[in-house]
Amino acid sequence: MPETFWEPEVSDQNRESQPQNPLTEAAALTVSAVDFSALEERIVRAVEMVKHERQARVEAEEKAAKAESEFHEQLPKLERLQKEINSLVAERDQVRQRVERLLSQLDALEL
Question: Which residue of 7, 32, 47, 74 pairs with 2 in a disulfide if CB–CB is 3.0 to 4.6 A?
């Protein structure tokens, strides 16, 4: 692998032993240009992915803030309904006790 992406994959020893051929240099530059183009495409894809992920994060944060706001709006209603349920349970217990007392009085009359 070359030390940098724009250098051809030719060692220093091979460079000295090979005669400098313009076609070889052009081929090496072409390979480097292809490598550079591939790197450029990867960078563009990475930038697009980062943009997409940032937008998704912003949308998720907005959604979470909206949900939290709705929760805080509903909290008083939840507390009111919980009190109402507790009240209805207490009322039901009172009615059940009264009915049991009336039934026991009816049982006493039948004797």
Answer: 7
Residue 75 has pLDDT above 80, yes or no: yes
Residue 1 pLDDT > 60, yes or no? no
Range of the domain at 93: 12-110
pLDDT over 60 at 79, yes or no: yes
Residue 7 lies in a domain: no
Domain count for the chain, please give it: 1
6 within a domain of the structure (yes/no) = no
Provide CB contacts within 8 A for 28, sequence distance 6+. 8, 10
Is residue 2 one of the residues assigned to a domain?
Answer: no
Q: What is the pTM of this model?
A: 0.48
